[in-house]
C-alpha cells in the first residue's frame, strides 16, 4: 500500500472514529453532566487506565516495536518467531500490570484527585474497579495494532475504535433510559456504576478482539512462545528503558495537573471539561498528523534500515510540509468555531464559553505537537530513545511549573485554561529542542525546505480565523443558534470551520503556495470514485 492510500485510509477511519467518539461523549455528558461531581469522578476513574496505556503505547510499543518488527521481517520466517515471543511476553506483562492496578485503584484515585470530598472519591473508586481492566485490552489492542502497522496493514488499527464507540453509545443510552441525568454523587447504586463503567470497558475489549480477525493479512504465523532468550530483550529493554522514563515524566506532569484540577469539583471547567477540550484538540491531530505520519514512520524505518539517509531526510521534509498545511488550517478553523464546538460537550452556552477558553489555550500547541510527532519518531527509527527522554523531561518540568503558577495566580474559573496554556507553551519549547537535536544528529534537516512553508500557512491562517470569527458573530455569537444545543453546536462549528477553510485556501492560492496543489490532490482522493 502506498503512502497516499495509507494516509487516506487512516484519515477516513480516524474521521469516522472521532465522529462516533464525539457522539459517545455527547451521550456520556447527557448522562452525568460536564461540570458535576459524578462527571468529574468518572473522568478521573476512566482516565487512570488511559494514563497507564499511554506508558505502554507511546513509551514501549511505538518507540520500540515497529522498528524491531520491520527489521525482523528480514528473517527467513518473515519475523513470525520474533512476533510470537513479543506477543507472549507482552500479554503476560499486561496481565500483571492490570492486576496490580486493580488492587491499587483506591490509592490511585486519591493520588490523582486528592481534593475530591470523601463521597466523590468513593464513587470514583467504584468506577475505577470497573475501568482498570481496560489496561489489558488497551495493551492488546496496541500490541496487535502496531504489528499490523509494521506489516503495512494500516486500516484495522484505526477503524477498530469505531466498534468501541458504538458499544459505549449503546450502553450510555441505556443508562439514560433507565436512570436519566445523574450528575450528583448521591443515590448511585452498584448497578448504575456497573452499567456506566462496565460499558466503557466492554467497548475497549471488543476493540482489541476485532483486530484478531485481520491478522492473516500480516502473513505471520504466531503461537505462544516462552523462549525469549536470543531475541534481543536486553537491546529492546535498553531502548524501552529511556522511553519508559520519558513517558513516566509526562505522566507525572499530568498527575500534577490532575491534582490541581481536582479543586474544581463543580460549576466551573474542571477535569471532565479539560478532557473534552483535549478531545476536540486531538481531532485534527489524529486525522492529520497521525494519519499522514504513521505510514511515513514505517517508510522512514525502512530507509534507515537500508542506510538511505538522504531519502529519509527528504521524506521528513515532505511529511512536515504536508502535515503543517492541514494542521494550521485546522487550528484556524477550530479556533474560530471554539464556542460552538465546545457546546457539543457541555450542557449550556455558559459552560461552552468556559470550555472554549480551555480549547483555545490547547490550540496554541497543535502545530508544535504535530511536528513533534514526526521528529520524535525519527529518533526512534535510529534506536535513539535517550535524546527524546531529555527534551521531554524539559517539557514535563515546564508543564509542572506552569500548572503550579496557574494554581497560585488564577481564580478557580480560569484554572483549567491556565493549565492548558502552560501545556502549549511547554510543547513549543519541546518541539524547538527536538528539531535542534535531530538536525544535529542527521547533519541537517532541510529546514529551509519546510520552514518558509510554515510561514505561508500562518499568514493564510490569520485572515481565515478572523473570517470564521466574523461568521460566528453574524450567526448571533454567544446568544445565537450555534450554542443553543449540542446538535446546533456541531452544525455551527461546521459552517464556521468551512468559511475559515475557504479563506485559508484562497489566501494560499493568492500566495501561489507550491504545497497547495499536492495537498488538494490528496484531499480529492477522499471523494467518491477517486483513487
Automatic annotation (TrEMBL):
It comes from the Bacteria. The chain crosses the membrane at residues 7-32, 52-70, 82-109, 121-141, 162-181, 193-215, 236-257, 277-298, 319-343, 355-375, 387-408, 414-438, 450-475, 487-511. Keywords: Cell membrane, Cell shape, Membrane, Peptidoglycan synthesis, Transmembrane, Transmembrane helix. The keyword Metal-binding does not apply. It is found in: Cell membrane. It is a multi-pass membrane protein. PANTHER family: LIPID II FLIPPASE MURJ. NCBIfam families: murJ_mviN. This is Murein biosynthesis integral membrane protein MurJ. It comes from Microbacterium koreense. The gene is murJ.
